[in-house]
Model the fold of this input.
Amino acid sequence: MSEQHPKSAKPDDICPRPDKPVNLTTQPLASAIYPTSVWICNEPAETDRMLGGEADGYVYQRDKHPNADALAEKVRLLHHAECATITSSGMAALSAAALSVLAPGDHVVLSNQLYGKTSLLFAQELTRLGIMCTAVDTCDHDATRDAMRDTTKLLVAETIANPCLQVADIATLANIAHESGAKLLVDNTFATPVLCRPLDLGADLVMESVSKMMNGHSDVMLGALCGGQSSWGRVPVVTSAWGLASSPFDAWLALRGLATMHLRMDRACETSAAVASFLAEQSPVQHVDYPGLSQHPQYELATKQFGGRYGSIVTFRLAGGRAAADAFITASEAIPFCPSLGEASTTLSHPETTSHRAKSPTEREALGIGGGTIRLSIGLESAEFVIKALKESLSAI
Ligand SMILES: *Cc1c(COP(=O)(O)O)cnc(C)c1O
Done:
């Protein structure tokens, strides 16, 4: 029943008033978005307990909101984790992990094959706070063990590394970290929980850039961090105090994307395998990196760790170097040059001028990246469509 208003009610006293709560007898199948920055609290003692984390409930969006909680719960289940949180981006999830675990004087061992901004976060930003780091090839387990120090608190690797797709042996890296009393943080963005659950293999913390394949529609910027209770410690306070929290609308969109993640991954993995085999036979292509090709250095590990699927990214190197890459990319109308990954459509990136532009040519060459290196993110089109598009671009070289 609508409430009766006195005839004298002015717009001033109607429009700005809080909306009446919706009293639901049936529940919506699609979830609601709660953009509210603040909640109407019942009384101070309960609010005090909610803010202290002793009682459930929402007070202020930066601390906690229902859309992030709904997404976090699905990500928690996907990763078999005790705890999960959603952050404003993948970088915010990495920052939350680093700022929770590390203090001045601590040391980090980093894979030398990381997403460019992750290397920058540790090597340039966290060093300003007195945190030291050493980059090593984490596929070389002796070198990784040698890099660990008494002060090492964190070992960081990517399940499938950017851009040349080296596969991390997560169980072995977890042992190396734990032997030194450190934690293993795994960036699982290229694998997604469809291929790999690093916590099951011994990792302490796992992060995902939800902006990529998990959301899968290139319209959201979000991250996720998961871990066991014993690794969680400061994560909630760090996320709130450093302002790393997510927006309700993005969390809502990402839940919608997540509903089809497993189907999108199935399709993209299947097409990627066909594309990798196709590229390996083309004369302008000097080399193909794909963990599903038997010549890949970690093919057996990938097969064991990912159960027969190898991801949606295929990286290849054109024999003609930068000039060939320029010709290929300019001709590539059907596959746009978008320096990201995990979209519904197939896209490509050029690591030399995008993700790895801060490295010197010698450093890039050591990582297997040249001017002719192109990274494909395989989307949801048919394999025939993608292969035809690649054929056309290759013929332009
Ligand atoms: C994109 C990406 C990130 C950073 O995530 P954002 O959501 O862009 O902040 C971290 N790691 C990997 C492997 C990525 O691809």
